[in-house]
Amino acid sequence: MEHETVSRNFIEMEIDKDLADGVYDTVCTRFPPEPNGYLHIGHAKSILLNYGIAKQYGGTFHMRFDDTNPTKERAEFVASIKEDIQWLGADWGDKLFYASDYFDQMYEAAVTLIRKGLAYVSDLDAQQMREYRGTLTQPGREDPGRGRSIEENLALFEAMKNGEFADGEKVLRAKIDMASGNMNMRDPVIYRVAHMAHHNTGEDWCIYPMYDFAHPIEDAIEGVTHSLCTLEFEDHRPLYDWVVQSLEYPHPPRQIEFAKLYLNNVVTGKRYIKKLVEDGIVDGWDDPRLVSVCGLRRRGYTPESIQKFIELCGVSKAHSTADMAMLEYCIREDLKLKKMRVSAAIDPVKVIIDNYPQGQVEYLEMENNMENPQLGVRQVPFCRELYIDGADFMPEPPKKYFRLFPGNEVRFMKAYYLTCTGFERDADGNVAVVHCTYDPQTKGGNSPDGRKVKGTIHWVAAPFAVEAEVRLFENLVDEEKGVYNKEDGSLNLNPNSLTKKTCYVEQGLADAQAYDSFQFIRNGFFCVDSKDSAKGHLVFNRTVSLKSSFKLPTDGR
Ligand code: ATP
Ligand code: MG
Fold first, then answer.
1. Contact 184, 123 (CB under 8 A)
2. What percent of the residues of the chain are helix, what percent strand, and what percent coil, each to the nearest 5?
3. What is the pLDDT of residues 289-321, one digit of tens each?
4. Which of 152, 327, 379, 394 is the 20 to 30 Å CA partner of 92?
5. Residues contacting ligand 1 via CB (< 6 Å)
6. Residue 59, class by beta-carbon neighbours within 10 Å (0-12 exposed, 13-18 middle, 19+ buried)?
7. At 515, phi and psi to the nearest 5?
């Protein structure tokens, strides 16, 4: 019998309680990215969490661009974020919103606070503001503007809106408590002057709301019930609650915080990824070495593998980190049965079978995936000249090397036993051609006399092979040294994070399209590069190698 383990995360338990207590009768969540960069694996956690919760409770999921800060936001980011969220499988239906669409309502909300005596215009500059704020051990001092009359505040705030002040000359502050133990409650700034065009509202506004004021209003307007965010907002929750209460929204949303997802030894933060892009260290936001969502996609990750990974990471309030090995485990598991297993000779070396008839071609049947017969079979040509992986031949092998070397007999996968009889070097001293003989009695890769060989290697028939480029990746940062340089905070880069190699692949891959993915036998999963691959110049990114050091910690959830 199917046995379902009921292990609910702490957010689900809170929601269950809210529903049982009648605090809410429906569930509405949102993902609120700021369009100032591309999404990364950490955002994927937030997206899948919010989307998953809404779906599980039969509620609604909102996609909302938190575009209240015109300085860093760009339309390019809006488009990429939408694409990434759709790709991850979070469907917002017709619930697509922009915080900037609520600028009128936010302005009105600020006016309401002024009318209630809960907000005032301040003349302090940023420096003075800091001095007046006090410290953790000392209460703040009253802003000279704090005593202004409601009428004066209304007039000044309107003048701010009408462009009568320069940037930084005036701000609107919430009137809360300058002695609060929570610094966020010491009369936080809620509106500032910024003469700046906005990607959505253009020149309409020269004042913009601050995040802590705008966010609860956005949630309340949309009827969000559970506003899930990361732990750094925990100290902001009293302000969030103050805003929704002061504005008397009929169904106040509730903020719940969870821990961010971090990957060990991996550059995750938007700020750091942006720097790598701007410094030209990577090939854009979608560089396959990045854990940006588009980078992972270009690398060959699937939405299913990312969903599985996020599920394994779990949701909690305690900071924790996950290993890249777990993400790699998830993609291997996802692709294992889905993808064709084909031959590719990387750093190719030519093999000539001297006793094989010139001009003869045999077609050998290969299973497309030994573990999944549903993928069928294909006919692969075999002939006198083949390519093998450079790593599968050594002129002078070390101990325990069971592949091809002079005098050794190995199995050519599904074909014949071949014995190496010698090799030739090119002018530079590199191995150019390996000579072999084959045993016609061993067709299919088995010997009728029971003769055993220790190595089995894969191959591609030379006249039919298609040349391609493969890109092999390592961590962008040097794990031995740690991600960040202790002295200046810069990244400790790994000079070997990208290696480009030549290879020959089976003819059947000649027309492979962007994102098509295959297992290259013994070498890993590879995916056609979406940017640089073209007909006649195929480029494959190695998604992940086949070897794994990762063990699933539990009984295989
Ligand atoms: P970064 O931390 O990379 O600078 P951000 O928090 O500035 O990202 P936003 O666009 O503000 O990026 O994030 C949108 C949502 O994604 C927020 O609710 C934020 O809490 C969440 N989020 C960001 N990073 C992570 C992470 N590492 N794990 C889980 N959720 C995250
Ligand atoms: Mg943020």
1. no
2. 30, 25, 45
3. 999 999 999 999 999 999 999 999 999 998 888
4. 327
5. 32-34, 42-43, 45-46, 229-230, 260-261, 268-271
6. middle
7. 75, -5
